[in-house]
Amino acid sequence: MKVLGISGWSGCGKTTLIVALLPRLRACGLTVSTLKHAHHDVDLET
Prior knowledge:
Layout: H1 14-27
């Protein structure tokens, strides 16, 4: 398994980069998934 990590300051464009990158990785035949770390409480709707 290969893992790519992206980190940076808040507001620097990490999410924008990932949104643009994921379709290109899928087009190369890769299976992709994302995981986001949040430093605040997360309310999961079930």
